[in-house]
């Protein structure tokens, strides 16, 4: 009987010791946690400069700052917007947020970040060299509206001079006009007209790798090369985004955009006139 009583006392003592140890451990951990919480300084709330967003690239000068909490509104969902209130919040602050489809705003900001480069580009030059590709057009039913750039490149060097001269070498050099009827001269004149400047006396040299009058856009290449060279020589920049002024000038000379569009933009281009101006869109190239 005494043995059974001793076993009961041992079990009771063990349970009491385990309970006491658990209570002491819990108390110590709680004390340590409360001490750490009282001595740790909480992080400061985010400032206006910390809360910002950009859909282009990480650049503090171009990021849009959100100055009020972002809330989801029913109008966001109804209008198919971001759904997180960003647009409404920024509109309230008099700013515009950039979304992936905000192409024109993106272009404006990229141009603004290249002020020094653009100013240098608007400096008149004494000489310029332009490389322009061959093109092939009239694909299937796409008569006068579908064209593709080809990996054959002609090189044109134009410089200010005291005498007018056109020299050429390479493909079709013997058949190329050496007077002002040459489409290079036409393109240069169009560029200086756009810049509202007189055309200076110029000397032209062509290294032709595009077969002349063989359906590979030699005339369009000459027009585009002349316009681009003339713009550089005049120190003039055409509006591009939303107007595509270079395409308008080239297509007005050529009469249609099927060759000049791929000569300017590359790839396969589908161009039409929308009743107001020429527009073109790049088409995917089939594998």
Tally of DSSP helical segments: 9
Largest sheet: 6 strands, mixed
Distance between the termini: 96 Å
Shape verdict: elongated
Order of helices and strands: HEEHHHHEEEHEHHHEE
Number of E-state strands: 8
Give the fraction of residues assigned to helices. Answer: 25-40%
Summarize the structure in words:
With 287 residues, this protein is an alpha+beta fold. The N and C termini lie far apart (96 Å). Strands 3, 4, 5, 6, 7 and 8 form a six-stranded mixed β-sheet that branches. Helix content is 39%, strand content 21%. The chain has helices at 2-39, 74-78, 86-92, 103-112, 115-121, 183-195, 218-234, 245-254, 260-265, and strands spanning 52-53, 64-65, 127-139, 142-160, 165-170, 202-208, 268-273, 278-283.
Topology:
Blueprint: H1 2-39, E1 52-53, E2 64-65, H2 74-78, H3 86-92, H4 103-112, H5 115-121, E3 127-139, E4 142-160, E5 165-170, H6 183-195, E6 202-208, H7 218-234, H8 245-254, H9 260-265, E7 268-273, E8 278-283
Parallel strand pairs: 5-6
Antiparallel strand pairs: 1-2, 3-4, 4-6, 4-7, 7-8
Helix pairs in contact: 6-7, 7-8
Please describe the structure with a list of short key phrases separated by commas or semicolons.
287 residues; 9 helices; alpha+beta; elongated; two-stranded antiparallel ribbon; six-stranded mixed sheet; single chain
Describe the structure concisely for a colleague.
With 287 residues, the protein is α+β, with helices and mostly antiparallel strands. The protein has nine helices and eight strands.
